[in-house]
Amino acid sequence: MEACFKSFDKDEDNAMNINEFTALIKALFRNEKGKPYPVDNHLINEIFLIFNKSGDGSISKEEFAHCWNAWIKKIVRPVSALLVIDVQNDFISGSLAITNCPAKQDGEEVVQPINKLIETTPFDIICYSLDWHPQNHISFVENVALRPLDPSSSVSNASQCKLGDVVVFTSDVAPNNKMDQRLWPAHCVQESWGSEFHKDLIIHPQSEVIHKGINPEVDSYSAFFDNAKLGKTKMDEILKASGVTDVYVCGIATDVCVASTAFHSLELGFRTILVDDCSRGIDETDIKNSYDKIRSQNGLVVQSHEVRAMVQGRDRRVELGYQWAVELRKNIIYPPKNKNCKFNPVMDEVETSKDKPAEASATEVTASA
């Protein structure tokens, strides 16, 4: 930290002004060949104010220590997780094969690139999710008559319901006693062939497997929460216990379970990257809308050949750095002269845990590869 601070404190006043911080930012955010990514000055100023807690116009050594430990170190040395979502027989060649959906994409095409990612990229943790439905699951069109349809449902007669319809069930578990549900064919029933991983998918021996969609009364697209947030899996707990900063999401279907997992990953504060060529989806418009939403929240959509350098900290993207800075801002108490005081958290929600000591050299910030 000391060497980095000294390197960018050009006027040797033991503080880092906006020009010096700008030079640091341009050294930090580079691709794997050492070419700097363009960074908007407004964004630089916003990040500067996040770490200039006092609001006095320069980052002191104390403020820089927090910037280094909580931000720079994690950008240079990310802790990365790969989440492989629902690469299961029923979505590839079974009852809900996505080849039969409007986009006509082939789910089997994700297997080879995902395997290559697992074999070549040093992820810190790999997790797989499985749709794991009981036979009486609410999402199955075959089960529509098992539950009362709410008067507000656009389809009010169970005998008239068909695949793809969105109906509203009366529900004792939902907060407003209503449960919206898109109807799918029975799929990924627990212990069935359709619920199994594709036979060629590599299952890493030290990986974690998350089962979702277990509750018969609520559907569950995301690997973090069910659709109504009535329950959650252990995914968040597993990732945070491992100190994960970056979450790479891929699998089936891009615009449903993969996208929902990415949205919740962003919501939970992880830097989130969807791997496009390792995912296949249902509807082209919905896929595009999902990508737009991820990007609007400072997540990324990338190709698998870009991932290794990012996981190794050699390719450092501006969007991910900004997202992490904004996440850190949530737990900083600012004085009134810093305009970030409007983001001050409620005091009893402020985390008190401290970052572990950093061990990174100044050259890691300026290294081009």
Quick rundown:
This protein has about 375 residues and is an alpha/beta fold.
Folded structure, characterized:
The longest helix is centred in the N-terminal third of the chain and has 16 residues, at 61-76. This protein is α/β, with parallel strands linked by helices and 369 residues long. Helices cover 31% and strands 14% of the residues. The protein is built from twelve helices and ten strands. The strands form three sheets. It has a six-stranded parallel sheet, with helices on both faces. Strands 1-2 form a two-stranded antiparallel sheet. It has a two-stranded antiparallel ribbon with strand order 5-6. α2 packs across α3. The chain folds into two domains: 2-77 and 314-366, Recoverin, domain 1, CATH 1.10.238; 80-133 and 199-311, 3-Layer(aba) Sandwich (Rossmann fold), CATH 3.40.50.850. Residues 349-364 have low confidence and may be disordered. β8, α8 and β9 (271-280) form a beta-alpha-beta unit.
